[in-house]
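# step 3/5: fold
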Amino acid sequence: MGAETDGTVGAGSIADFRVEFTPRSQDQRFGIFQVYVGGLAIGDGSTTALHPHYRDFQRLCDLAQKPGVRERERLILGDTFDHLDLNWRLTNADVFFTFTTRPAHVWGDPPPWAPAPGVWARVKVARSTFISTWRAAQPQFFQLMGLQG
């Protein structure tokens, strides 16, 4: 799965920041939405609808485009990320994500690449890379959703 999969659209580098979607049904709006930050996959690899994740990441990009610092806040990004307790923070230069896996008895089995429950991962991406990667992926996501850009 990931950047090498046929039909996957998105932008960015797995080593820095990548956002991608791989259609998994005749209705191209349903598939696997995956995000990589600092080489770590933070989605669960399950089939999902693209639009809610598009909306959530568009909101994050809109916030990242505003100047200034934003203190750490909890992120709730929907089903693909339900296995995680996820936070984000903006500095003038970077976007930081911190996350840990929730206990399996509550949220089901996490993907094999998720950190162990209680072990926090902290990854960052340059704010400019976060914004430019999202902007590069947007038109491809719009096309799959059948929307006008």
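# step 4/5: annotate
Residues 44 and 111 are 5 Å apart (CA to CA).
# step 5/5: archive (pending)
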